[in-house]
Amino acid sequence: MSATDAAANAARVPVAGRTSSGVRLRQSLAGWFFSLPFVLIFAVFLAIPLITSFLLSFTSFGLRDLRNPVGASFIGLENYAELLGDPTFHTALINTAVYVVAGVPLTLIAGLAVAVALNGAVRRFRTLFRVGYYLPVVTSIVAIAVVWRFVLSPDQGLANLLLRAVGLPGQNWLGNPALAMPAIIAMIVWKNLGFSMVIFLAGLQTIPTSLYEAARIDGAGKWQEFRYVTLPGLRPTMLFSVVTTTIGYLQIFEEPFVMTGGGPLDRTMSLSMYIYEEGFSFFHQGYAAAIAYVLFAIVAVVAVVQFRILRSET
Amino acid sequence: MTLASDQLRQAPVTAVTADRPRGRGFTGWWIYLLLFIGLVLVVGPFIWMVLGSFKPAPEFLRIPPTWIPEAPTLDNYRRLFEVLDFPRFFFNSAVVAVAVTGGNLVFCSMVGYALAKLKFVGRNQLFLLVLATLMIPGSVTVIPLYILMSMLGLTNSFGGLILPFLATAFGVFLMRQFMLGIPDELLEAARIDGASEVRIFFQVVMPLATPALATLGILTFLGSWNSFFWPLIVASEDEMFTLPVALATFATGAYQADHGLLMAGSLVIVLPVLIVFILLQRLFTEGIATTGIKG
After folding, report:
1. What is the ipTM of this complex?
2. Residue B158, min C-alpha distance to chain A (Å)
């Protein structure tokens, strides 16, 4: 826009050609000048590591090679072949799928429910609710884990106190292989529902009130209103939320790491945790890079598929 | 930005209440009841954390547990600051968060401005690159990044903690979206007056971008203050621990059963965030919503 403006101005001035090409050159130089720091940071700390990671996944890079990284031996597709028969990798893959399949809908439904409730008749305490539900989102996961581990502890934990109060036996939430995953998913939903609430609240603002009035004139009830006005109106917001939340859950690391360390019996270990374990506990960096690229491929495929759907539907 | 969306938010509500007393959507006392039960479940653990940090160790063994400390004590905090090196961890966290925030404010607005308002060869490609990197999982780059840092001798240093995060794709995206709204006429006028591009950026663009800078600053500070994955990897020596790394180390190690101490430690991490968040909560929620919806 500005270049054409400048050209239009220049047409009235005698030195037309020189001015417009001068402006263009100046803008081009300025553009790259302003982009330079970012481009440098990105090249060194993102682009190069991204490529290196790919190369690493074809090597047996380990602790010894840290002194001489270029000397790591090339082993072709061996890491990837090993992954196929690695039971821990299979467990991590399945666990990650469970995190996504259970976590994404629960988070979005909880966030949507609170947003719709807040957006309706609730005017008193609105800010209190908004701030309250959003609080876990801004809180350090490590601090949250400290409290939740106590809440879920077998003897004095609040969760078991509630169970015992209604006559049910207390559970060893984080120690029981069948219960650890549901307990962690509950915590993740608890932590993240505020974020999707805020996104949905913003989406609800974009639905014109006239649609609700029309629905009311047509005699629609609350549920019909929700079903035929609110939900369709939220479609773009919903698709955005599904994409970002899914990508987030695919990379889940911190929550299981601080709650269980991946246990019991690897039942809560995610792909990102397995990358950490292989790369920084066992120092099999080549192998860890291969797992990382599998995760990257999954994220990329899921993102592309979801963006396609997003584009075709909006 | 904040002001405009505030007005948007207020307008329909007042318009609706004027002619429709019951409001729109779901109404009734049971909505309040459900929201309050939810709120108790969400905020309860925080209250538990605050109260617990003042409890002496034996009180945690009580069945049923006490909510209000019977013998409140500051001993947990005393141990945190005198026995463990929490002032040091606090300092580390603060230095990293301030540096990362400063870097993002400067570098992201520079590119954001260039992408939104300057015509240059490769601009579209650069923007596509930024968009593409938004979804790269951190665990993909973390291994080479660690190898790079150990080659440069930057593990266990502020450089290692700060450098990779000085500019983020999210920040660039946020600033670009905001700067698209700055009128071209203002920039043209400054150019005709003979201002240099650098001067235009600092004296015209940056003052106009204050709302976006505030949002970016808060979100970046918070992200850095709470960040855990990278500091856990790059800081292996006690003296370079940030608060979350230190707390996680104590919570899974020697102080595992020392609930009062751990809750006091949690509060030290949470309190600064809590204060900033409650004071500026609109900037958070609306900043996120704006980038989310426009994205």
Report:
1. 0.83
2. 15
